Amino acid sequence: MLFAVLFEDDPACGPIARKSHMGDHLAFLAAHAAQVRAAGPLLDDGQMPTGGLWIVEAAGPEEVKALVHADPFWPTGLRKAVDIRPWRQVFPPAVTQ
């Protein structure tokens, strides 16, 4: 099952936490590439990160929540809120075998 994971960052610690932990965060995403199908920042009008978006394949929302909490960004306080929602890809059509 696919999930959209929407993160809202805390602007008070965003730039410092993001810069300090970006390497570990990217290594974490690479290590979990089989589950995290896509990831990237959500930007404001000035192109500054205000949160993030992941597309995750998992058995259920609890598995996604565990993945979110294992991300090095989580304990830093960078993530103010997270919203995990089931998602269905309709375009482009998913390839099935």
Q: How is this structure best described in words?
A:
The chain is 29% helix and 35% strand. It is of the alpha+beta class and 97 residues long. The mean pLDDT is 94.
Write the layout of secondary structure elements.
Layout: E1 2-9, H1 14-31, E2 36-43, E3 49-57, H2 61-70, E4 79-87
Antiparallel strand pairs: 1-3, 1-4, 2-3
Keywords:
97 residues, alpha+beta, 4-stranded antiparallel β-sheet, 2 helices, 35% strand, globular
Helix content: 25-40%
Mean pLDDT, rounded to whole units? 94
Number of helix segments? 2
End-to-end gap: 16 Å
Query: Hey, roughly how much beta strand do the residues contain?
Result: 35-45%
What's the β-strand tally? 4
| Principal-axes shape call | globular
Rg (C-alpha, Å): 14 Å
Poorly predicted sequence stretches spanning 5 or more consecutive residues: none
Largest sheet: 4 strands, antiparallel
Strand order of the largest sheet: 2-3-1-4
How would you spell out the order of helices and strands? EHEEHE
Summarize the structure in short.
About 30% of the residues lie in helices and about 35% in strands. By secondary structure, the protein is α+β, with helices and mostly antiparallel strands. A 4-stranded antiparallel sheet has the order 2-3-1-4, with helices on one face.
